[in-house]
Amino acid sequence: MNNEQWIILDTETTGLSEPISVVEIAAQRMRGWERDGEPFQILLNHDVPIESQAEAVHGHSRSYLREHGEDPYPMSVVAEQIEAILEDGVASPEELNGLKQFLVSILPV
């Protein structure tokens, strides 16, 4: 893993009970165990209730997301922002396709 490039991708949600919405997506490109570039973070305001247990984990209340979150619609805008951090061949075409499928599954269309 000395000089290998890879991505850390993290999501936070409104909780564990359906319906579940993603309220934060964060990513960091890595080279080995060192950061490679600036971190990516986006907060998404779905304007839905957030379970208290989830808020205790990520610290984002409904009112905080109303003020600081972005409109999650359309999903393609969010996906484009995330794809931008994957430039320079860090991810293979198969990995990019997998990421796109993941994003489609967690974000509104």
Which key features would you list for this structure?
alpha+beta; 35% helix
Give an account of the 3D structure.
The protein has 109 residues and is an alpha+beta fold. It has a single domain, classed as Ribonuclease H-like superfamily/Ribonuclease H (Nucleotidyltransferase, domain 5). The chain has four helices and four strands. The protein has helices at residues 52-58, 62-68, 75-84, 93-106; strands spanning 5-13, 22-31, 34-35, 40-43. Strands 1, 2, 3 and 4 form a four-stranded antiparallel β-sheet that branches. The longest helix has 14 residues, at 93-106. The radius of gyration is 15 Å and the shape is globular. 11% of the residues are buried.
Q: Strand tally, please?
A: 4
CATH homologous superfamily grouping: Ribonuclease H-like superfamily/Ribonuclease H
At the third CATH level, what is the topology name? Nucleotidyltransferase, domain 5
Using only C-alpha atoms, the radius of gyration works out to: 15 Å
Terminal CA distance reads 36 Å
How many independent structural domains?
Answer: 1
Q: How would you sum up the global shape? A: globular
Assembly status: single chain
Unreliable spans are none
CATH top-level class: Alpha Beta
DSSP strand (E) fraction? Answer: 15-25%
Q: How many separate helices?
A: 4
